[in-house]
Amino acid sequence: MLQRRLGAHGPIVSAVGLGCMGMTDLYGPADRATGQATIRAAIDAGVSLLDTGDFYGMGENELLIAEAIRPFRREQILLSVKFGALRDPGGKWMGVDGRPAAVKNFLAYSLKRLGVDYIDVYRPARLDPSVPIEETIGAIADMVKAGYVRFIGLSEVGSETLRHAVAVHPIVDLQIEYGLFSRDIETSILPLCRELGVSITAYGVLGRGLVGGNWTADRMISADDYRGAVPRFLGPNVEKNLRLVDTVRDVAQAHDATVAQIAIAWALSRGADIVPIIGARRPEQLVDAVAALRVELGPNEVQVLDALAASVCGTRYPAAQLAHLDSERG
């Protein structure tokens, strides 16, 4: 397994990470045993970075991970945990809480559910506009000093927030959407991260499945799959976007690879400070993702793939969600 470092002085991790959200939440029905088998297959393959959120399945995701990692040594695994998103008993979103007391409370419950003594990278899932980021990061820094957290990360924040955060404590990575169909961070956020020595842990590399090679325009989206509200998956948008995926498929055929492998290889090619987080829910998807590490794209192929983003139809989130993303401010 190839490895990369998070941040200028952060931990060494596998070159690809495993995103565990879909194993319990937001992507429709999921099988618990299959999710655990995927996590164990990932660790066996050398994937050390496991990403979760305490609000995925209202804690169920962390419990699933705890059971899956039990047979392994703690040092084999790097746990990245997001916190702060609030949900009601019906699963609806109610905002974000980044208050210092809430930070420490969220952490206590994550440690308990995961069955570990420390979290490797702890990060607010979104910016709480009512709490200065300095206060939120300061609270996590207290937990670093106490030994409950090793490193601090951020998620979906813009350049100004990032500058304020690193003034309080070193930030090892920014988790943000980045892939063939989502390249907005290249304007200002990515250059600033590189200036400050902050890595990118990139989610959405497969466009939430749209660039995975298996999506079809007539696919029925279940009521509990949030992609049913994402503009890129709706109406004529999905048909136009799938025509772009055909270009990725052409490149894949030249490498005897899958569409997903090409999308992952493209993300890996953007720099040693980019670590793709792949939301595999089944062992065979995990194997497919890891095989992307063997794909080397040529300059002409990269140029063809680079051109796709300009033609993508539909936004990456519904308008209401985009309005609350600090990262959309650049």
Compact description:
The protein is an alpha/beta fold and 330 residues long.
- The rounded distance between the terminal residues' Cα atoms is 33 Å
CATH architecture: Alpha-Beta Barrel
How many DSSP E strands? 12
Question: What characterizes the major β-sheet?
Answer: 8 strands, parallel, barrel
Q: What oligomeric state do the depicted chains represent?
A: single chain
N-to-C order of helices and strands: EEEHEHEEEHEHEHEHEHHEHHH
How big a fraction of the residues is strand?
A: 15-25%
- CATH topology: the name is TIM Barrel
Strand order of the largest sheet: 3-4-5-8-9-10-11-12
Number of folding domains? 1
**Overall pLDDT:** 95
